[in-house]
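Session log. Operator J.P. requested a structure for one protein chain; no other inputs attached. Running the standard single-chain path with token output.
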Amino acid sequence: MADSLVIVESPAKAKTIGKYLGSKFIVKASMGHIRDLPKSQIGVEVENDFNPKYITIRGKGSVLKELKDASKKVKKVYLAADPDREGEAIAWHLAHYLELNERDSCRVVFNEITKQAVKDAFKSPRPINMDLVNAQQARRILDRLVGYKISPLLWKKVKKGLSAGRVQSVAVKLIIDRENEIDAFVPEEYWTITALLKHGSSTFEAKFYALGGEKKELGSEQDVQDVLKAMGSSPFTVADVKERERLRNPAPPFITSSLQQEAARKLGFRASKTMSIAQQLYEGVDLGKEGTVGLITYMRTDSTRVSPVAQEEAKGFIEDKYGAPYYPEQPRVYLKRNSNAQDAHEAIRPTSVLREPDSVKEFLSRDQFRLYKLVWERFVASQMASAVLDTMTVDLSVGTATFRAVGSKIKFPGFMKIYVEGNDDGTTEEEKFLPPLKASDTAEPESVEPKQHFTQPPPRYTEARLVRTMEEIGIGRPSTYAPTLETIQKRGYVAIEEKKFFPTELGELVIQLMEEFFPEILNVEFTAHMEDDLDHVEDGKEDWVRVLGAFYESFEKRLEVAEDEMKEIEIQDEVSDEICEKCGRHMVYKMGRFGKFLACSGFPDCRNTKPIVKDIGVTCPKCKEGKIIERRSKKGRIFYGCDRYPACDFVSWDKPSGKPCPQCGTMLVEKRNRSGARLQCPQCDYREEVLEDQELEQEQAEY
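Structure written below.
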């Protein structure tokens, strides 16, 4: 008979841990939080030291009864929720419901779900950490006070259904500020001159660098003409050659924010998708004969720290597989990326580097495999030796002008043998070979090409870029990035088009009112300081009631002013030319979670709605009659289909081009990435580039 009950959050985690612990333990899942503040009221007694009034979450009755009954049949109950604030709060609520003494050693935590880690954790249970619980309570109450005090005001003054959040409002403001920067941006003209040169049998590129020995920027066509005139018809002569060796160090192992960013760059994952799949890998996957194993360590962390045991295993693996030169002289130690990092957990890494991605591929879904491979490669690379690159810089004189050519080659790949960190512009380190050149050598110009450019506005935020910005300025924490991005979209304050955030009119209006009446909530420094205060509560250095009191004192005064001075605003719907086919009224534009849609102006008498379709000017390749239109899936993803649906069921995630493949005749589709766009055949291997250089620059700038 079992003599201990272990409670975790999810059935998947329960299944994995149950196999490790054996028959003396019953492992059950609470299915997440069991208590929360009520939805129907604020649920916080402000005058009574912000005492929260928790209630059982609706639908959890049967789960709680099962846990209560099981707890009565055993000698000991262990609470093994995730090792963070949320997990500690779940454990505390369970202890309260099951009438456990929170000072008893009932709390078990582990950073990875492997047999050894779990068994070691049960050897040293501890009491519930009330500092962690209070940090979670303080955040929850802060967000409740902001949301439930400001939202009714917005309902009364603007529109029903509006709401305001603390961290979410700052995120929306960042997106709006970026859009304002783009609107105010004035492009500036600049030019480049590129020479294609030949030396012996080799060709290479050199770019204009200086005139008369002074570095010069080309701001106009006249500047270009001055350089071309100064060049005359002289040959290109090598004036200086500099060669040096440089080291390139690997990126640190993943933390939550960097995992979300890299998964977006390399896999195209949304932040929420990344965290969902990472949760699956953490909780455990059935690996056949090996059993169920957690493949990665805990995925909500801001620490790059790696345990000595994991480092030693990585060292053995690297030296065995790649050779001793591929391991550095000393194990790598990565410093905190910023002062806000709590360092409570390890970095995100595979639970064992010996489980190479290909060895577990058959047991994983496609997305699980891709994310596990990313985590595995990043961690192994982070423990490897630096790459050694030979670089060569050549200055060539032609008349009184100087052109510069830069080349590099990899002398020793080091960590680059398995992984190179992605960039926001989609580029990676490439070798650029230059022929062997020495002073006084000459090169013949095959072409000299001046080109006009214009500076580009700052890029709009992608999810990855916004997460990085939030991390840099100290807004939010590892567990909050993905929920924040989801929330601002659900509320209709921002929309995503082509993976970039655009503010909606509703979002701009709400932020405008917030700026006027609650400026401290939108103040980045204020919000970052509040995050620091919550961290200090977690560390036991600050009292959570004092933190809430300091915030509420000024917040309450702001509420009184807003109640008296905020004017009522009526949001007028924009009328379209579309006529409702059900009642004959004009349809109006409405803003939903995934952008604008059309709704009948006769609502609520007529509830007709329909999407805004965009004709891309291409005839359907399947029926040859319909037009291809842009649509949105239920999850907001853009796809393309025939306007004769359901008579014609043609559908494509990629934009059809209208151009047939010269090899097989299938219509080519447009594929986009951070380095530009190309036309590609979905049936054969034919592809071609489609964007001009200037358009490519714009695409890269957007990312």
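Operator note: Residues 659 and 667 are 6 Å apart (CA to CA).
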